[in-house]
Inverse folding.
């Protein structure tokens, strides 16, 4: 269950193509500056290695995730007001997708790249919710499905297959809108962000790079 729940003026210079001058920008991960402040590791089964490196293609610093038959994620507890900054912005690049796995089963619940938002249930821990945006190997882009480990987590494929392997992909999602459409919930705040590359269920391996993560008002 925890795998899926945890399975978070200078900025305008950092993200010139992503943000408008009048936008509110809330940073969550500034990997390009070599900063991992606020991010913690959560181990599940085996370990994914995370390290800040220079990407040889664009010569920028990024977070490199290497997973070989293991699963651990990085998460950051940060309360985000979706009424002010509902848009989640991120980027990633991966070298391969998985062959012959069923992501609807526990044996295939592995993803070369995933980022997810968590809504904390507090004392009512069973009400904790997670929305996973993933690079899918067995679903089509735009599809959603229930996580095989817990009904509290919903999976959504923002990327799929092999078409864009080895290419930096950039995304911008309205989290408040997605939580309403995909989970049927009116959510005003989220409580954590997590990223993960995991291969423990399938026993495969993957290498993925993650770029900066931030929220914006538009």
């Amino acid at each position: 269950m925890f795998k899926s729940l945890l399975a978070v003026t200078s900025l305008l210079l950092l993200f010139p193509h992503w943000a408008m001058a009048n936008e509110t920008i809330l940073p969550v991960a500034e990997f390009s500056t070599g900063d991992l402040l606020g991010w913690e590791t959560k181990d599940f089964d085996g370990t994914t290695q995370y390290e800040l490196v220079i990407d040889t293609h664009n010569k920028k610093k990024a977070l490199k995730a290497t997973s070989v038959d293991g699963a651990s994620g990085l998460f950051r507890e940060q309360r985000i007001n979706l009424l002010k900054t509902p848009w989640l912005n991120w980027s990633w690049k991966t070298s391969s997708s998985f062959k012959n796995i069923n992501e609807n089963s526990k044996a295939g619940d592995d993803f070369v790249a995933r980022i997810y938002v968590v809504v904390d249930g507090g004392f009512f821990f069973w009400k904790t919710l997670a929305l996973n945006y993933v690079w899918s190997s067995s679903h089509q882009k735009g599809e959603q499905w229930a996580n095989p480990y817990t009904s509290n987590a919903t999976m959504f494929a923002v990327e799929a297959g092999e078409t864009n392997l080895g290419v930096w992909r950039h995304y911008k999602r309205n989290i408040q809108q997605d939580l309403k459409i995909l989970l049927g919930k009116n959510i005003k705040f989220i409580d954590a962000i997590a990223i993960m590359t995991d291969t423990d269920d399938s026993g495969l391996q993957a290498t993925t790079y993650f770029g900066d993560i931030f929220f914006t008002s538009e």
